[in-house]
Write a structure and sequence with these properties.
alpha/beta; Arc Repressor Mutant, subunit A; 2 domains; three-stranded antiparallel β-sheet; 17 strands; 41% helix; globular; binds S-adenosylmethionine; binds iron/sulfur cluster
């Protein structure tokens, strides 16, 4: 058993790895067709949660996979078990991810009853032909219905969308943005399709059976999305995340700001006082390890100073607020190393740099990777 370092982490991530079907683009730790395992997985997860410090936690995030795929009984047992063990801070945020294909009033009512106050729904696209291409188990009508149910059940709702789909037109993207406006969403996560190694899309791409958009078209669509969302009052507070001021996902902000966080579940990663622990990814092996009294640790690493500095740059530059230069200094990356580069980038209009924070400008956001590489330790 790994002894976790002392930490008063205020954030907790819980992973549910199951989905109704594996989407061909997805490299998340998720698996389909294991309904037989749900009960023993909930047992194992609750066992692990029971060993965690009781909190209080400011944010909790149940992600996946698709947490709502658990039937109402298993879901209720999970939520009640979590509540029995952990304390929630006043003004806490508790998010649960959901898929429109496994969303109904009963499940959402259970979430709300047990204290979940934010639902993040995987809408992905608003044209049925794109949803079919993405291998989704839901259609647009189901997405609309699930959003309406989510809004009735909890005060805060977000939608995940994937753009940059092969053949996607500007008018289709305009419809996507209009959809967010029509549903008066306070938060949206908008990702560009990534072809991830190990996925079905990757295999099709390598066989020449999947055409991706050229860079200019991708850039054009991203910029259309960013300005369309801004026009709706949704600010880009992180590379792929947009919110009305005050509606940002506090859980993910804590992660991007390198706060300590606890975790439980297969493949889940906790970071406590510089020690990062990744749990056994395979759900069956995770269950077996926990049942045997172990901690299911797959990898435990002490983050080095250089790794912490690199993460400070990479995560900070994703944020509209930018890199917290006092935090960077505290990690030991003195401004003498990067100051000259920053002055040049500021002169080129790619960053804003004011002595306490260093953030990408809108022009810099378009070349985020290059700016990040230029500023990070070599
Ligand atoms: C764990 S899933 C969200 C909940 C649920 N599993 C679902 O898909 O409805 C996380 C999100 O990451 C995004 N995502 C996953 N793989 C992606 C990829 N290859 N390219 C772009 N976005 C991706 C999707 O928007 C997805 O909703
Ligand atoms: S995108 Fe969501 S529903 Fe699809 S396989 Fe990944 S985790 Fe499951």
């Amino acid at each position: 058993m790994t002894i976790p370092p002392a930490s008063n982490a205020r954030h907790l991530y819980l992973h549910i790895p199951y989905c109704a079907a594996k989407c061909p683009y997805c490299d998340f730790n998720s698996i389909a067709g294991r309904e037989d395992e749900f009960e023993s997985y909930v047992d194992a997860l609750l066992e692990e949660v029971g060993r965690l410090p009781v909190g209080p936690y400011e944010t909790v995030f149940i992600g996946g996979g698709t947490p709502t795929i658990l039937g109402p009984q298993a879901l209720e047992r999970l939520l009640a078990g979590i509540r029995d063990h952990i304390h929630l801070a006043a003004n806490y945020e508790w998010t649960c991810e959901a898929n429109p294909g496994s969303s109904d009033a009963e499940r959402f009512a259970l979430l709300a009853e047990h204290g979940v106050n934010r639902i993040s729904l995987g809408v992905q696209a608003v044209q049925d032909h794109h949803l079919r291409f993405l291998g989704r188990v839901h259609d647009l009508d189901q997405a609309r219905g699930a959003l309406a149910l989510a809004k009735q059940a909890v005060p805060r709702v977000s939608a995940d969308l994937i753009i940059g789909l092969p053949g996607q037109t500007r008018s289709e993207l305009a419809a996507t943005i209009a959809f967010i406006g029509e549903h008066e969403l306070e938060h949206a996560s908008v990702y560009h399709l990534a072809i991830e190694a190990g996925t079905e899309f990757h295999a099709r791409y390598q066989r020449g059976e999947l055409q991706v958009l050229d860079q200019d078209t991708s850039r054009d669509l991203l910029e259309q999305a960013w300005s369309g969302l801004a026009a709706l009052g949704l600010e880009q507070y992180e590379t792929s995340n947009f919110a009305r001021p005050g509606a940002e996902c506090r859980h993910n902000l804590a992660y991007w700001r390198q706060r300590d966080y606890q975790a439980a579940g297969c493949g889940a990663v906790s970071t406590l006082a510089g020690q990062r622990m990744t749990r056994e990814k395979h759900p069956g092996r995770y269950i077996a390890a926990i049942q045997a009294g172990g901690d299911a640790a797959w990898q435990v690493e002490a983050l080095t100073q250089v790794e912490l500095i690199e993460e400070c740059w990479m995560l900070g530059l994703r944020l509209a607020d930018g890199v917290d230069l006092a935090a960077l200094q505290a990690l030991g990356d003195a401004s003498e190393r990067w100051h000259e580069t920053a002055v040049v980038l500021a002169r080129q209009g790619l960053i804003q740099y004011d002595g306490s924070r260093l953030a990408l400008s809108p022009e810099g956001r378009a070349v985020q990777d290059a700016v990040t590489v230029a500023l990070m330790p070599g």
